[in-house]
Amino acid sequence: MAEGAVTSVRGYRDIAIMWTRAAMAYPASFWMMAVSGFVVGVLDFVGIWIMFHTIDSLGGWTLAEIAFLYGATGFGLAAADLVVGRIERLGQMIRTGRLDSMFLKPLPLLTQVCADEFALRRFARLLQAVVVLGIACAFVSWTPAKVLVTLSMVVSGSVIFFAVFIGFACIQFWTIDANEVANAFTYGGNTMTQYPLTVFPREVVTGLTVLVPLAFVNWYPALYVLDKPDPFGFPEWLQFASPLVAAIMMSVALLVWRSGVRHYTSTGS
Amino acid sequence: MTALYLSVATRAFRRYSTYPAATLAGLFTNCVFGVIISYVYLALWDQQPDAGGYDSVDAVTYVWIGQAMLMTVMVWGGGATADLSDRIRTGDVALDLYRPVPLIGWYAAQDLGRAAYHLLARGVAPTIVGALLFQIRFPDSVGAWVGFAVSVPLAVMVSFAVRFLVATTAFWLLDATGPATVAFTLTVFFSGFTVPLVIFPGWTRELVMVLPWAAYLQIPADIWLGQREGWAVIGGLALQACWAAVLLGVCRLVLRQATRKVVVQGG
Fold first, then answer.
1. Residues of B in contact with A39 (CB under 8 A)
2. In this structure, are residues A47 and B190 in contact, taking their beta carbons and an 8 Å threshold?
3. Which chain A residue lies closest to B40 (C-alpha atoms)?
4. Domain range for A217
5. Chain B neighbors of A193, CB-CB under 8 A
6. ipTM of the complex
7. What is the pTM for the complete model shown?
8. Number of domains in chain A
9. I need a labelling partner for A106 at 20 to 30 A (CA). Which of A192, A253, B37, B238 fits?
10. Is B40's CB within 8 Å of A178's CB?
11. Is residue A176 part of a domain?
């Protein structure tokens, strides 16, 4: 098991380095895209700042508090997009037969799919999220417990997004054209959790707690770190449950992946 | 010539309509985003009921017009011009230059055909879903409907010209993905897809309302909402037409420079 993990990480690293070298063959494009990625993130946050130009609080949260939510979910999404984001292209890999050739290589299939066309420039989004989260953290009154909850939030949030990317990409094993459905949960989930969940109806929040538990990416830990009472009155222990939820989601995603691979019969020639 | 462009456009329309599963998946995602952003804007307009001169119904309508127009004006780039940058890199553009049709016209016709498909397939359904889930506004005069109907193709032409310019950078850089990313970054923000341009603060609002990107969504939406009436409709359409003409003119100049340096290998 441990040996398998080492092989996977090493294989992933080698493939990632190869694709990074390839991207550097067009340095102008690489830097333009990396800088744009950063600017996209900055402008996205400027959008929220513009909203706050007309209001003082949104759903009862201040700009600094929303920045904490924004940075946390942004980090999770960017980390997942960097590491496993290429799985979005699964349908394309099936159509072109690329996936078939991956079956023949001595490396776990999931590792190869995620590492394929690895794009280092996506690091820029991660950086932007770190900057926003860093600024937001300056407004928090810290305790040791809050530091722990924040660290676990960032790690669990990333793992939850890993799972969402992998799980929903598997739809493409059944319908190869429908990759955009996953966007509703990955990027849509990110957009949703950028805002305090108080702006949504209670049913949506219940859904984000039980069905697609994206509320654990930032909402529940943030309630604890920012000393906010849960406006929906859900149990307090949920605020510490993010690591558990992340572990469950990852297991489910891997199960879905395995059943997808078992279902897969290639497109033939 | 018109018949030729028309048949190019029809074929582009058909080409995009061959992937119904992709269209359905895209619609689903449009609707999810529409719902999310509607709730955020409702919270904002609840705090500030006349932000940017919109009321909350205007704001929610704006969200759904945005989701309906997203693919039509290709905010994220792509469309016919994405083929062009690939063909420049591979050299296939030589064939395009041989055609007895101007290159810009050939691609513009394709892109209009694509836009017509996206307007029908990706525009109508989100509008209906938006109307079912939220209270939204429809144009209340024939003038507004006509204005909107003229405004959308003009929006497509401005968007096409920008994407065409981006694609032609491949003549110099070989790989146009860098400029494409820069262009899409600017487009998403300055076209009002991040937040409506009307709520931009102070003088930045006046500025962004006359930039070419205002033609993508803000002008058509304001005509739909009745925010622009009478002469303001004509003014909005004139601004769109002006940017379309200027940018297409630049496309021609750039293309002339580019073809002068093209070397067709082999053959």
1. 185
2. no
3. A199
4. 2-263
5. none
6. 0.91
7. 0.92
8. 1
9. A253
10. no
11. yes
